[in-house]
Amino acid sequence: MSGAGRALNRTKDRTRRLTARLRRHAGPDRVVRRRPCWGGIAVAVLCYCLSLTPSLLPRAWWLQGLVAGVSAAVGYAVGTLGETVVRLLLRWAGFRIRPRLRRTLWAALGGLGAAAVVTVTAWSVRWEDEVRRVVTLPPHLVWWQWALVPAVAALVAKLLLLAARTVRLGTRVVAHAFDTLVPRPVACATGVALAVFVIVGVVQGFLLRGALDAIESAASLADQGTTEGVHQPGLPSLSGSPQSAAHWDTLGAKGRDFVGTATTRAGIAAFTGKPAVDPVRVYVGLRSAATLDERAALAVRELERTGGFSRRILAVMGTTGTGWINDQGSKPLEYMWGGDTAEVAMQYSYLPSWVSALTEDEAAATGRALFDAVYAKWRTLPAGSRPRLLVYGESLGSFSMESALGGSLSRLTAETGGALFVGPTYDNPLWRTVTARRQPGSPEWRPVVADGAHVRFAQVPADYGIPDTPWGEPRAVYLQNGSDPVVWWSPALALHRPDWLDRPRARDVSPAMRWYPLLTSWQVACDLAGADSVPDGFGHRYGTMPTSAWAEITRPPGWTGADTARLAALLESVREPGLLD
User: Fold this and answer.
1) Confidence (pTM)
2) Whole-angstrom Cα distance, residue 78 to residue 82?
């Protein structure tokens, strides 16, 4: 026999010995190829059907398949655990399920389960159409795509089940390997602990860390780029100009967008028909200074250099994760006040908001550092010549600005001249406080706080008049859509039915939506993927609503409702930031 043949035989012998050893350690029961569990299949079918019920926003067929597959896999785990407990109780009671009854149960589950999957999948098309109509999308779906939902769900569920059983096999191998060395309970505990250690290590150290590193690398490269058509400004009233200490190449991509697309004096004058001045826009990027305090100090020096503290309006603006400032929130002030404005912002990350949300401390610390530095300088000015100090933030930017005020309504009313928060997150400290203190009878999606004395919530302009009581100064407005998953998802949604599902509901929440433990939290979390893919006024899209909100908050002299409508029409084409920005 040749050397290659002998080597091949040795490899075969080693493989057989290793297989026998694994079988000995794994024990007699099949783990990966074991028969399915009746209780697991039953609960999996139930969870699959419930996952197709309406949520906040419409879903693509592939996303619905993913949602249903994960839901079914979780249901299988719950059902298997429940059946195990029932079996133990029946065994303890001396009751044994006869083979004939077992066959009958399986036949009933097969027939009823298949009928339920087909019926609910077909009916879910009507539910999906209803959700699409609520957000003013055409209520038509491609039937063959929706017919693929069960197939996608089955594939996802099987992959998750295979992964779980592989982990269980590994746990059993370790436990049997230690069984001859230590008592069996200790061996089992060792196997479980080792499996948990490996899973956590792989997920955090390899999968999660690797994914975050890849995202961070891509985001860092994007942050160094410049949007096509955006050029370094020449006006001294803008950061990044030749006169600025915040150099153009340190502002980051979104910072360069902010100062490079600033509203011009000519554009403002053309709209208002009155003389205007060039607005001040100050932006400090992560690379503009070494530390947080140095960046905040640089922002104040930039405001001093540009004359920002001598303008009528001074707005401190929180950014989204990438450092974005939505033009829908910044431009209206400049038009309303003839350019006699200064807006200042500071970057805390270049990662997308959905990643930056994992490190909220950076947003909070940056918001506090910027506001405190600006406020400290603002307080030294003569009371009669100070600009009106405003705060603004959208999404994670609203969290940053609320954190800057310590989540305190009293600080907001004492230290600012008004505030606009758009699409707040569940973790916003002030939003949580005022929502929890809403007056009885007012819905969570449009709460009334202290008779609307300072704070009001709106989805459409008519909401500013609710309640019909005097609205004092300073004014704060929250813009939040009833169908915005950024606002309504929270960890508590897993175990507690939310008040925003009470009646009356917001106009853009389907009447057919129901709350289910764990499942609804998963559904709304998946709605985040489509939060930016719906028309303005729904999901996480607020369109030109900041224009009307700023008009209500600042009440520019001589400004009319017709002016607000004209400005909204002018800004209608401005693109809003998405969750991936």
Assistant:
1) 0.86
2) 6
- Please report which confidence band the pLDDT of residue 402 belongs to, taking 50, 70 and 90 as the band edges: very high
Sheet strands side by side (includes 476-479): 280-284, 341-346, 313-318, 388-394, 419-422, 476-479, 455-458
| CA dihedral sign of residues 396, 401, 405, 409 | negative
* Beta strand extents in 302-377 (DSSP E only): 313-318, 341-346
Half-sphere exposure of 416 (CA within 13 A, CB side): 28
pLDDT band at 105 (very low <50, low <70, confident <90, very high): confident
Instruction: Return d(Cα 320, Cα 317) in angstroms, integer.
Output: 10
**Per-residue pLDDT tens digits for 312-328:** 999 999 998 888 999 99
Please state, in angstroms and rounded to a whole number, the distance separating the CA atoms of residues 355 and 580: 9
Angle subtended at Cα 428 by Cα 321 and Cα 546, rounded to the nearest 5 degrees: 70
- β-strand pairing of 388-394 with 313-318: parallel
The predicted pLDDT at position 205 comes to 52
Name the burial class of residue 11, with classes exposed (0-12), middle (13-18) and buried (19+) by CB atoms within 10 angstroms of its CB: exposed
Q: Flag whether pLDDT at 36 surpasses 70.
A: yes
Count up the domains in the chain and report the number. 3
Using an 8 Å Cβ cutoff, are 295 and 346 in contact?
A: yes
Residue 577 lies in a domain: no
DSSP alpha helix (H) spans, 55-140: 61-92, 99-134
Same domain, 22 and 152: yes
Cα–Cα distance measured from residue 179 to residue 216, given in angstroms and rounded to the nearest whole number: 45
Structure tokens at 419: 């505030």
> What is the pLDDT at residue 451?
95
Give me the sign of the Cα torsion angle 216, 217, 221, 227.
Answer: negative
By the 8 A CB rule, do 396 and 356 touch? yes
Same domain for 474 and 504: no
493, pLDDT greater than 90:
yes
**Residue 8 forms part of a structural domain:** no
Summarize pLDDT for 226-247 with one digit per residue, the tens: 788 889 999 999 999 999 999 9
- 363 within 8 A of 288, measured Cβ to Cβ: no
CA torsion through residues 316, 320, 322, 328, sign = negative
How far is it, in rounded angstroms, from Cα 219 to Cα 221? 5
Which amino acid, one-letter code, is at 84? T
Range of the domain at 45: 16-178+492-530
Residue 196 in domain: yes
Is the domain of 324 the same as that of 424?
Answer: yes
Q: Which two tokens stand for residue 479?
A: 């813009």
Identify the pLDDT of residue 354: 58
Three-state DSSP class for 505? coil
